[in-house]
Amino acid sequence: EIQESKDYTSINIGRGWKKSIYEYITENPNKNNVFLISALLS
């Protein structure tokens, strides 16, 4: 199950979250990309 906040600063989708966040970044560039990329690299 995918649970996303309205502004996509919080995405919790279980084991596939990193791939899905990356896909979200590449498909929907926005001002939160720095936050999301930081989460990917953590």
Structure explained in plain terms:
The protein is mainly α and 42 residues long. The protein has one domain. It is 48% helix and 10% strand. It has 2 helices and 2 strands. It has helices spanning 17-27, 33-41, and strands at residues 3-4, 11-12. Strands 1-2 form a two-stranded antiparallel ribbon. Strand 1 and strand 2 (11-12) form a beta hairpin. It is flat. The protein starts with a strand and ends with a helix. The mean pLDDT is 62.
Short summary:
The chain is built from 2 helices and 2 strands. It has helices spanning about 15-25, 35-40; strands at about 5, 10.
Name the features.
mainly alpha, two-stranded antiparallel ribbon, flat, 42 residues, single chain, 2 helices
Topology:
Blueprint: E1 3-4, E2 11-12, H1 17-27, H2 33-41
Helix pairs in contact: 1-2
Anisotropy-based shape: flat
Structural class by SSE content: mainly alpha
Mean pLDDT: 62
Total number of distinct structural domains: 1
Quantity of strands, as a count:
2
Strand order in space, largest sheet: 1-2
What's the alpha carbon Rg, rounded to whole Å?
9 Å
Runs with pLDDT <50, length 5+? none
Order of helices and strands: EEHH
Helix content: 40-55%
Main sheet properties: 2 strands, antiparallel
Report the total helices.
Answer: 2
Measured by DSSP, the beta-strand proportion falls in 5-15%
Distance between the termini: 23 Å
